[in-house]
Amino acid sequence: MVTQNAQTYPGERLGLPREGAGSIGRLGRRVGALFIDYGAAYLVSGFFAWDPLAILAIFALIQVAFLPTLQGSPGHRLFGLRLLRLDGAWVGLWRPVVRTLLLVVVIPAVIWDADQRGLHDKAAGTVLVRG
């Protein structure tokens, strides 16, 4: 039985389009962006003898520095993704910090809702969309 509240695609109840610009960023793009950002952190950490904590710290720094300035990390931008507040406004400064802290914990990032938003995005009031 289908209820009236059922959505037919991720992001519909958020008012986002089914596909194209402004639609929910899908798993393939998100994972690709993660590999780019983590890979960059890994390469930069080579200056610090590839310490795992240095890699994680550099990854977090990349996120916090680029999310408010470019509307996404370098990986997000390369894969055509943008981070926005739910109302479409600038994410500000605190949202990237909260989102990143939860992202490096990993678990909140792998628990998604029907709109394919991780708990880290829900806590920060953000959504990752195609640019």
UniProtKB/TrEMBL annotation:
The keyword Glycoprotein does not apply. It holds the Pfam family RDD. InterPro entries: Pra-immunoreactive (IPR051791), RDD (IPR010432), UCP021697 (IPR016795). The chain crosses the membrane at residues 47-67, 88-112. Keywords: Cell membrane, Membrane, Transmembrane, Transmembrane helix. Residues 51-125 form the RDD domain. It is found in: Cell membrane. It is a multi-pass membrane protein. This is RDD family protein. It comes from Microbacterium awajiense. The lineage of its organism: Bacteria, Bacillati, Actinomycetota, Actinomycetes, Micrococcales.
